[in-house]
């Protein structure tokens, strides 16, 4: 979920992350128009919508159990470390890449 900027309150799926830059690309968020010439890849050409990078500090993870944007805490188990929601104390582990 985006917490600041023009797309505040919108949610989306993180498509790509750039850990060294501290930025992410979220599908359908922070869109910009780009003019593209005709090519084999884009035979029509024209104006396309592209996703721009978003600063990580402007987004929060949405907890799957309580459905609220939350910070992440860590809990140590016997042989692993799991991420938990700070609001409902449930596991946030899922299909992350």
Please write out the topology.
Layout: E1 14-18, E2 23-26, E3 31-36, E4 46-51, E5 54-55, E6 61-62, E7 69-70, E8 72-76, E9 81-85
Antiparallel strand pairs: 1-2, 2-5, 3-4, 6-7, 8-9
How would you briefly describe this protein structure?
The chain is 0% helix and 38% strand.
Structure description:
The chain has 97 residues and is mainly β. The protein folds into 2 domains: 1-59, no CATH class; 61-97. Helix content is 0%, strand content 38%. The protein has no helices and 9 strands. The protein has strands at residues 14-18, 23-26, 31-36, 46-51, 54-55, 61-62, 69-70, 72-76, 81-85. A 3-stranded antiparallel sheet has the order 1-2-5, with no helix packed on it. Strand 6 (61-62) and strand 7 form a beta hairpin. It is elongated. 8% of the residues are buried. The mean pLDDT is 88.
- Distance between the amino and carboxyl termini: 17 Å
Low-confidence stretches: none
Q: What oligomeric state do these chains adopt?
A: single chain
Work out the number of β strands.
9
Largest sheet: 3 strands, antiparallel
Number of domain modules = 2
* Helix/strand order: EEEEEEEEE
Average predicted confidence as pLDDT = 88
Proportion of helical residues? under 10%
Structural classification? mainly beta
Strand arrangement in the largest pleated sheet: 1-2-5
Using only C-alpha atoms, the radius of gyration works out to: 17 Å
Number of helices: 0
Shape: elongated
How large a portion of the residues is in β-strands, by DSSP E? 35-45%
